[in-house]
Amino acid sequence: MPRVIRALLADDEPIVRVGVNAILGSDEGIEVVAEAADGAQAVEQARRVRPDVALLDVRMPGLDGLAAASEIRRIVPETAVIILTTFGESSYIQRALTGGASGFLLKTSGPRELISAVRAVAGGAAYLSPWVAKYVISQMPNDRISRAARARERVARLTGRERDVLGLLGQGLSNAEIAARLHLVEGTVKGYVSTILQRLNVENRVQAAILAYEAGLVER
């Protein structure tokens, strides 16, 4: 029987927690094991229940979602973090990139996308809501042509197979999904990903995914 993904949900609005909880609860493979109304509670709950995935609102009383994400990643590194954001909070996305978040999702996303995001990050993938990925790239310095050229130059260091893996990583696929798509063993894909991060000099899968977008490996 497949392992159930254990999720922590943190949002200061009860109605949002109820809605997200209901969506995740509709998937038999996901269970919300803890909830929190602010960032400090989220950190404490993460420490206590050690969930597979933590979904954090950006704006919460006291410790905000971005600070909570960094703290959770520090004390429970095995927990993947998804940042829940709105259009009005989009300026926080860049800051979250360095906080160890594996996913960025709009609160207006549909149920299917929410479930896909949780499954993706639980499987070791990065998940960027399409709008979020476009926003991140659009807010980078205005030398977009030169940035794209530099991204292509960096990606050119990779082998053909590594570029294939990077492109699928940029689409939000997990190691298992990449392995199935490329007819590889999952452990082999994990090795490819580690090599890709090292060769591209990026810290995590989210940054690699953005680079894949910039280099044109993923359709925008």
TrEMBL record:
<dbReference type="GO" id="GO:0003677">
    <property type="term" value="F:DNA binding"/>
</dbReference>
<dbReference type="InterPro" id="IPR011006">
    <property type="entry name" value="CheY-like_superfamily"/>
</dbReference>
<keyword id="KW-0238">DNA-binding</keyword>
<keyword id="KW-0597">Phosphoprotein</keyword>
<feature type="modified residue" description="4-aspartylphosphate">
    <location>
        <position position="57"/>
    </location>
</feature>
<dbReference type="InterPro" id="IPR039420">
    <property type="entry name" value="WalR-like"/>
</dbReference>
<protein>
    <submittedName>
        <fullName>Two component transcriptional regulator, LuxR family</fullName>
    </submittedName>
</protein>
<keyword id="KW-0805">Transcription regulation</keyword>
<dbReference type="InterPro" id="IPR001789">
    <property type="entry name" value="Sig_transdc_resp-reg_receiver"/>
</dbReference>
<dbReference type="InterPro" id="IPR000792">
    <property type="entry name" value="Tscrpt_reg_LuxR_C"/>
</dbReference>
<dbReference type="GO" id="GO:0006355">
    <property type="term" value="P:regulation of DNA-templated transcription"/>
</dbReference>
<dbReference type="InterPro" id="IPR058245">
    <property type="entry name" value="NreC/VraR/RcsB-like_REC"/>
</dbReference>
<keyword id="KW-0804">Transcription</keyword>
<feature type="domain" description="Response regulatory">
    <location>
        <begin position="6"/>
        <end position="122"/>
    </location>
</feature>
<dbReference type="Pfam" id="PF00072">
    <property type="entry name" value="Response_reg"/>
</dbReference>
<dbReference type="GO" id="GO:0000160">
    <property type="term" value="P:phosphorelay signal transduction system"/>
</dbReference>
<dbReference type="InterPro" id="IPR016032">
    <property type="entry name" value="Sig_transdc_resp-reg_C-effctor"/>
</dbReference>
<feature type="domain" description="HTH luxR-type">
    <location>
        <begin position="151"/>
        <end position="216"/>
    </location>
</feature>
<dbReference type="Pfam" id="PF00196">
    <property type="entry name" value="GerE"/>
</dbReference>
